[in-house]
Design brief:
The protein is an alpha/beta fold. The protein has a 7-stranded parallel sheet with strand order 3-2-1-4-5-6-9, sandwiched between helices. Strands 7-8 form a two-stranded parallel ribbon.
Length: 260
């Protein structure tokens, strides 16, 4: 490997890092997991869907990577605390990717308290509790760490029918901004990625409808994003390449938010 290539590789390297990835069983998580592994990380796959995570783990191992699986419901503080405690017995966590998320799509008049609570607890409160538990441990041992919150352009402006989701994602970005002002001096970094409309197995059907086609035409890039379009930002924020980046939100949406 040339010196030039070695420098780039080292800059984004996650060799020896232990990375906890929530929402690892589907959507963006299925892309993020092997990407982190190929950068050298030992990836801890966390989700409620253990069977689906086995598929992700098999993919990582087939590529020569290292990973493990933990069952985790991010809506449970006790479950989160217990999970972090067990994982830290093996070694400290260096990176947390708060990727778990759900959406409820309903007209405002039809939203229930349960809708709000389920979206809030999964998308925002769970991410906060995970971050808090990790922060406590890194403050205690003085180690640096990176927390990457997966937000959304819908946290910057709504499109209708997703009020709880938009509110939670806006909150997720601002939690990171606020925490960074307290923790930057401690070597703890909290940043976010705000994806636009990304093709996943959950939304690919709707994106092919007339409504999806109208939306595509509003994106300056004239296409929906692909999961791999987020890999560069993910590796940047997880690695030491972003060592002076804190409280930032990287928007990856083909220019959609810029055109609003």
């Amino acid at each position: 490997m040339s010196k030039r290539n070695s420098f780039v590789s080292d800059l984004f390297s996650l060799d020896g890092r232990r990375v906890l990835l929530t929402g690892a069983s589907s959507g963006l998580g299925r892309q993020f997991a092997p990407t982190l592994s190929q950068a050298g990380a030992h990836v801890i796959l966390a989700s409620r869907g253990v069977d689906k995570m086995n598929e992700v783990a098999n993919n990582i191992e087939s590529l020569g990577g290292s990973c493990e699986i933990v069952a985790l419901d991010v809506r449970s503080r006790e479950g989160i605390r217990s999970c972090i405690e067990k994982l830290e017995l093996t070694g400290p966590l260096d990176v947390l990717i708060n990727n778990a998320g759900i959406a409820v799509v309903k007209a405002p008049q039809n939203l229930t308290d349960d809708d709000w609570d389920s979206v809030y607890e999964t998308n925002l409160r769970g991410a906060w509790v995970l971050a808090q538990e990790l922060i406590k441990r890194r403050l205690a041992d003085g180690r640096a760490c990176s927390i990457v919150n997966i937000a959304s352009v819908l946290g910057l402006g709504g499109i209708g029918h997703v009020a709880p989701y938009a509110a939670a994602k806006a909150g997720l970005m601002n939690v990171g901004r606020d925490l960074s002002t307290d923790l930057a001096k401690e070597g703890i970094r909290i940043n976010a990625i705000a994806p636009g409309y990304i093709e996943t197995e959950m939304n690919e059907g709707w994106l092919k409808t007339e409504g999806g086609e109208r939306l595509r035409k509003k994106i300056p890039a004239r296409r929906f994003g692909r999961c791999r379009d987020l890999d560069g930002a993910l590796l940047y924020l997880a690695s030491d390449a972003s060592r002076y980046t804190n409280g930032s939100v990287i928007t990856i949406d083909g220019g959609f938010s810029a055109a609003l």
